[in-house]
Here is the input.
Amino acid sequence: MTRVTLADLSPGDSGVIQGFTLPNESQEALARFGFILDTEVTFVRRAPMGDPIVYAVDGSEVALRAETARGVLVWRLPGGPKPPLA
Amino acid sequence: MHRIPSAARIQTIVLIGPPNSGKSTLFNRLTRLRQKVGNYPGITVEQHTGVLSCGGREFTLIDLPGIHSIRPYSEDERVAVEVLTGRAKGVPPPDAVIVVLDATNLVRHLALAAEIVVMGLPVLVLLNMADLLHKRGGTVEAAKLSAELGAPVALIAAANGTGLEAVENFLRPAAIQSPPMLPPILQDPPQCRMWVARTASQAGYRAPAPAAWTRRIDGVVLHKLWGPLVFIVIVGTVFQSVFGLGQPASNLFQDLLSRAGAQAAAQLPTGLFRSLLLDGVWKGVSSVLVFLPQILLLFFFIGLLEDSGYLARAALISDRTMRSVGLNGKAFIPLLSAYACAVPAIMATRTIENKRDRLAAILIAPFMTCSARLPIYALLIAAFIPERPVIGVLLGSRACAMLSLYVLGFLAAIATAKTLKSSVLKSTGVPFVLELPEYRWPTVRSIALRLIDRARVFLAQAGTVILCVSVVVWVLTNLPLRNGQPPALEQSIMAHLGHRIEPAIRLLGFNWKIGVGLLTSVVAREVIVGTLGTLYGADPATHAMSLQDALHNDLTLPGALALLVFFAFAMQCTSTLATVRRETNSWKWPVIQFLYMSVVAFVAALAVNQILTRLLG
Here is the structure.
């Protein structure tokens, strides 16, 4: 397991959220979509122009800009469960 | 702080939960259509009330608007909180609460359940769409979650009615007890998030995998190469249809409206009253009503895009580009809609949650070249610009002029957006978060409801603000009376006002007739064409000419170009102003917008006329 940011994951990778380097207000906004501590997040794909990035979190797919994703620290899961039926 | 009602006294139950949690489906199932829909006093939030029969008793069930949190950010949330705390006017204070959460997105809304539990009323938590959760490999243990929350929790599927016996059990007299208080961690957001994380894991929650077929469709729709291609095809088709079908539909509708007017005219005795009704009220209101087909057509397509789930993908694809002017992807479709009409565009900005981003989109939307500008553009271009090839047969000088006006409006919008977003509407730290919902087939019902709602809003404006402005314009053009008869237009107060402002607009190369046109077109931009037709028709010097020739003789080329530029920028549209007022819930923004756009229009027209007059003179 390595500690990286959400933006550093590759498509298909999963990570478990360990912390945030974002202001409290942004953390609150992300929490509304299920980005909270100990939650597993999967990098699904990039938008056609490369940014924002689509993540699977809490049963949904949610897109964040790379600048925001860089503020979410995760443990990269080894091998990571492959995104189902991708 | 709250009274705990004894079970026998429970009468009013509220149903609360986040949007899309299946709350309305459950409400319909529990009340079996014994319900009524009204509005909360003074606001546009709908109030759904129904009767729930259970164990031989009847309860009042209130379905609250979908909310994310009980900290009120939106009007919906404010209403929900007022009802919950018994402070809403005309709504009995609730005796018990049923919280509905989407079991497939449990983490994000656990805090809402906790917030409601600590309010102290008896609470039942229903985890809806449990069937979907299990089908997609997710799990949650209701009993463990119940222990964590201190309230009964049940898994249900409202769509097919499984698990609803939990509601009966909850309402059985013996079952209701005062809930234990959760520790007061909810006031502190970071601690609250920790609590959610811990509770979710204690309850053995595993989120389900997102729908596989949605991911497969996205594989194409968000593909590096195919994605933008699909985007262009879809957006192109929508706008081709809005213009292709919208124009004939508007013409047909206009025909119907004027025929209805003529029919009514035949029934009424001639005189001032008939003139007020027909030339004032009916003409004014129908000059705005003709936009209804186009507005509805646009909303039909926006509805298809939104309900199918593609709207979010379009926002995702366009975010990168929109970011360069300080906006985000969610503003793309609304702003594109503004090319047809700013009214639906401004209503469509409701999908932008961030208040400042939404306001910026609302403020720049009227700069986009809407279809009401086309009549005056077409008239002036035909009158002043000779048709010459610019790029071979591909682009003529007239098309080129038209295109320049589109570009001009677009540039004004971008410049305004950049200015706003780097000053008064600078984004707060809130990041751009975009949920990509599952693809679904849009339902006829949902699209129809949306169209009815939007038509109602638009007609309400036509019936109030636009009606008033039309009547004022009519009064000014029909006074002072001469021998009990209304004066010719050139002797009316309106003409007098036109002469009054002539010194100011002379600098722009306009005369008093144009001045009158500017004044009457505050109702809607295309009204100026009719006004100029009347004025030049009444003038013996231009009586025999077509309006095009009359204008050609009466205006200079710089003056005509200045008028085009004026219309590119000016906010000559009462419907838009009324819509902005409604959507921002204050007169402040429409007034600022009107002043700003008028000043920009005046200065730009002044510059065009003065510079060109010197260059050509």
In short: Residues 226-267 of chain B form the longest helix (42 residues).
